[in-house]
Design goal:
This protein is α+β, with helices and mostly antiparallel strands and 931 residues long. It has 33 helices and 22 strands. The longest helix is centred in the C-terminal third of the chain and has 85 residues. This is Myosin XIX.
């Protein structure tokens, strides 16, 4: 068997040119560590960093920026793809599967994305990409108001990352941006799968790093951001001149990419942290740095407190001012401790070691509570009401497995968290799936895998474990001794094979065999760190601080008024264990999606692949076993009832004679499921490779006792047929609906046409009647007016009869002489009546004017009125009616000439006669008629 396996491996590895095409490790045959490693190496050389491993995605860290791999266009491509699994492996496939599974094929379920791996493997970057993806695809709303809300939430969710990384990440030996705390981010979605809020849960901040940095490592990023990005005014306020050195800021040079102070400040502004609150935050951080430069020297008299040198007093004074407390009280709090003996208080000077411990404890408790306040503020800023969201997608980013030269309580807790996650993966996938196969009657041979339950029993087991013994030692009111505690560990846990001791080592320690390898833990200071003591005088001091924020974070924390005895029972490992159990409860109640980040080399060099480094990680996280089970098993498991409810429509509307399937009517649900599967697999549209009898499809589908086990291709086939039938039914419904709508629209058009015709005919009849009545009124009025005009015109005409009948009074000779004119064809001068109106003479080419001395003024008026130009000593009559508006003579005068100043009522009276005509007068038309 071994010889044949080696031959298969050699045959597989001879096709190295094709190894990079294996995008899923389940296609590797045979599945061995060597073949899996060779396939990953070939893809890494081709700059392909993602590979499927069954239910898990393997991500290799390139250690260099690859911008085109995470662009907006790539996000849209994976989000809009009908089948994202058909595209190249990518972290966006995992994100999209979880996003679509929120409203999944069967039951809506919350999702969890578990990103695991060693420190420096790329977990933080992967989590950042996942959050960016969801903030992009879950923000596509067409409603303007909703879009504004989503954009605001999206911006705040993304802005929480720089703040959390600045205050919680640090540069370590393995990673420039190592998370020194764990966080589980819940992205809250509403019914429309739009992002409406988020919440952040944190686990075990490594606050010891504030006061104690490992060799060749740095403090948290935010301190270096302040040193490199502060303005001169801020440096003056923080008492940080250029060139100032702080003991708690090692390796200040050179700067790294994460040392961006302005990005952190902008993120704070976007989250709603006011400028004054930001100022108070940075003053607290600056006070912590100054506090680290305070050193003590032993006093000659043990009854006296330790002394401070002059430079330390300056730093103490600066720290007190920045923290808003009295320098004297701060110094007393650091050098003297208060002991409670019943109702009496005793003051005891602290030793040199105790002074340093109290100083470090003060810095850690301030930073830890400030970090908790930031997390609470972020949650209040981005978290939605419970009624506003339905489901969530959780992104878990925790510290990776760590093994350094010196490992203490922090590394024990970190590795314990990784053990819990590995156990969750083993329990959920490797063990649970195989046990379910056997319970459902599948012919299955168990695949061996590394179970870490023994290691977890060693760390957290009951009644005796490392944590229980550590808590018991921490609660004893005595000074801890490392060697005594080691002896007790050896005595109580000697039966567990996962723990060992080096009896020849000078430093007391114990070794734990983790799933990822053995780690040596130093016992020295482990008990003190587990106590995490906070002197009550420290809390009392900061409750009186002038800094409102510092006073708030201490008053909020101690609002429960817990007694010191109750606080002493709460240890670091107990709090961390409780928070981790709540996290595991969330993971068990959600659908997990695993992403394994692999670190190709320990030096973080770009495009460098070291086989030993990679193979150890593949073995530790069980990738090979995962591929084995995924290749041979059925990843999709659906209960019979749910299966028939979802896919029974295929049998109902297919051409098969089996008829419809209803789980409520037929008690033999298993037989109905088999009929349905037979219909699906014998569908004429299936390929020839699937058009076989159902009994021959054990490699694609299997009916268990209560569930249907499917492979992904079979599920895709079911979904395609269901989608096709639903599309056909939807098309039929649309046709019927459109036909109904068309008939209804036609009927409405006919009705509307009849109504419109009736209304229009009524309107026309009413309008015609109005026109008839109006025309009758106009005609009668016009006839009356015409008769009036005719009577007036007849009254204006001069004839002999009218002249004879007129009783013309006898004029005075003088007046007659002065007011007369001589016409050329009348011998006797004609008297002009109605003086001084102008004249209009008909058929009179010229006139002779006789004037006397007494009538000179009147004749000048007549000449001005008639506008008589001189021509050959005679005067020609021309009209000036345009300016004077004189009326015209209506007929040829037969006697005296009448002058009228009224407008002519005649219809054809022309006020502006044609000047080119030879006929002169005021009414050319009538003159032509009368001549």
């Amino acid at each position: 068997l071994n010889d044949s396996l080696e031959g298969d491996i050699r045959a597989f590895l001879t096709e190295e040119d094709q190894l990079h095409t294996y995008d899923d490790l389940t296609k590797v045959n045979p599945v061995t560590p060597s073949t899996v490693l060779k396939c990953l190496q070939a893809r890494y050389r081709r700059r392909v960093f993602y590979t499927h491993a069954g239910c898990t995605l393997v991500a290799l860290n390139p250690f260099q920026p690859v911008p085109h791999l995470y662009s907006q266009d790539v996000m849209k491509e994976y989000h809009c793809a009908p089948q994202p699994q058909e595209l190249k492996p990518h972290i966006f496939i995992v994100a999209e599967e979880a996003y679509r599974s929120v409203r999944g094929q069967l039951q809506p379920a919350n999702q969890s994305l578990v990103v695991s791996g060693e420190s420096g493997a790329g977990k933080t970057w992967t989590s950042r990409c996942l959050m960016k993806y969801y903030a992009t695809v879950a923000a596509s709303s067409t409603v303007l108001k909703s879009q504004d809300t989503v954009e605001r939430i999206e911006r705040r969710v993304l802005d929480s990352n720089p703040i959390m990384e600045a205050f919680g990440n640090a540069c370590t030996l393995r990673n420039n941006n190592s998370s020194r705390f764990g966080k589980y981010i819940q992205l809250q979605l509403d019914r429309c799968q739009l992002l409406v809020g988020a919440s952040v849960q944190t686990y075990l901040l490594e606050k010891t790093r504030v006061a104690c940095q490992p060799v060749h490592e740095r403090n948290f990023h935010v301190f270096y951001q302040m040193m490199n990005g502060a303005t001169d005014w801020q440096r003056k306020e923080w008492r940080m001149p250029h060139g100032q050195r702080f003991a708690w800021l090692p390796k200040s040079d050179p700067t790294i990419e994460e040392d961006c102070f302005q990005e952190t400040v902008e993120a704070m502004c976007h989250l709603g942290i006011q400028a004054e609150s930001q100022r108070q935050i940075f003053k607290i951080l600056a006070g912590i740095l100054h506090l680290g430069n305070v050193t003590f020297s032993s006093s000659l008299d043990e009854s006296q407190p330790c002394s401070l040198d002059e430079e330390s007093r300056d730093f103490l004074q600066a720290a007190a001012e920045l923290l808003g407390v009295s320098a004297e009280e701060l110094e007393t709090c650091l050098r003297v401790r208060v002991l409670q003996a019943g109702k009496q208080s005793l003051v005891k000077p602290c030793s040199l070691a105790e002074c340093s411990t109290r100083r470090n404890c003060m810095a850690k408790v301030i930073y830890g509570r400030l970090f908790e306040w930031l997390v609470t503020f972020i949650n209040n800023s981005i978290c939605a009401d419970k009624s506003a969201w339905i489901n969530f997608i959780g992104v878990l980013d925790v510290y990776g497995f760590e093994s350094f030269c010196i490992n203490n309580l922090e590394q024990l807790c970190i590795n314990y968290a990784n053990e819990k996650l590995q156990q969750h993966f083993v329990a959920h996938y490797l063990r649970a799936q195989q046990e379910e196969y056997v319970a459902e009657g599948l012919q299955w041979s168990f695949v061996k895998y590394q179970d870490n339950q023994g290691c977890l029993d060693l760390i957290e087991g009951c009644p005796v474990s490392v944590f229980s013994l550590l808590n018991e030692e921490s609660r004893l009111n005595r000074a801890s001794d490392a060697r005594t505690f080691r002896v007790r560990l050896e005595k109580e846990l000697c039966h567990n094979p996962n723990i060992s001791w080096d009896k020849f080592s000078k430093e007391p320690h114990f070794t734990v065999a983790h799933y990822a390898g053995k780690v040596n833990y130093q016992i020295q200071e482990m008990v003190e760190k587990n106590k995490d003591p906070v002197p009550p005088e420290v809390i009392s001091l900061f409750l009186k601080s002038d800094n409102p924020l510092l006073r708030q974070i201490f008053s909020d924390k101690d609002a429960k008024n817990q007694t010191s005895k109750e606080l002493s029972k709460v240890t670091v490992v107990s709090k961390f264990k409780n928070s981790l159990e709540s996290l595991m409860k969330i993971l068990h109640n959600t659908t997990p999606h695993y992403t394994r980040c692999i670190k190709p080399n320990p030096d973080c060099k770009p495009m460098t692949f070291q086989k030993e480094e990679v193979i150890s990680q593949l073995t530790a996280c069980g990738i090979v076993e995962t591929v084995h089970i995924s290749a041979a098993g059925f990843p999709i498991r659906i209960p019979f009832k749910d299966f028939l409810q979802r896919y029974g429509i295929i049998a109902k509307y297919s051409n098969s004679k089996s008829g419809s399937v209803c789980p409520d009517e037929d008690p033999n649900v298993s037989q109905e499921v088999k009929k349905l599967l037979r219909v699906v697999l014998q569908h004429p549209k299936c390929g020839p490779s699937l058009n076989l009898d159902y009994e021959k499809h054990n490699s694609l589908v299997h009916c268990g006792r209560t569930k249907v086990f499917l492979t992904q291709p079979t599920l895709d086939l079911l979904e395609d047929q269901r989608r096709m039938i639903l599309s056909q039914r939807a098309f039929t419904i649309q046709c019927c609906w459109r036909r109904y709508q068309s008939r209804r629209r036609r009927s409405r058009q006919i009705s509307a046409t009849l109504i419109q015709a009736a209304v229009r005919s009524w309107l026309v009849r009413r309008k015609v009647k109005r026109w008839d009545s109006a025309a009758a009124v106009i005609q009668s009025t016009w006839k009356k007016w015409k008769s009036v005009l005719k009577s007036r015109a007849e009254a204006e005409l001069d004839d002999a009869k009218n002249l004879a009948e007129e009783d013309i009074p006898e004029l005075n000779p003088v007046i007659r002489e002065r007011g007369s004119v001589q016409l050329s064809h009348i011998q006797e001068p004609v008297t002009v009546r109605g003086w001084p109106m102008g004249l209009a003479l008909a058929s009179a080419p010229s006139i002779t004017v006789s004037m006397t001395a007494t009538g000179l003024q009147k004749m000048m008026s007549v000449m001005a009125t008639l506008n008589l130009p001189s021509r050959r000593g005679e005067y020609k009559v021309e009209t000036n009616q345009c300016t004077q508006e004189l009326a015209s003579i209506r007929a040829q005068p037969k006697g005296s000439v009448k002058l009228h100043c009224q407008r002519s009522p005649l219809l054809y009276a022309d006020r502006q006669p044609d000047l080119k005509s030879e006929v002169t007068g005021f009414n050319e038309i009538l003159l032509e008629k009368t001549l």
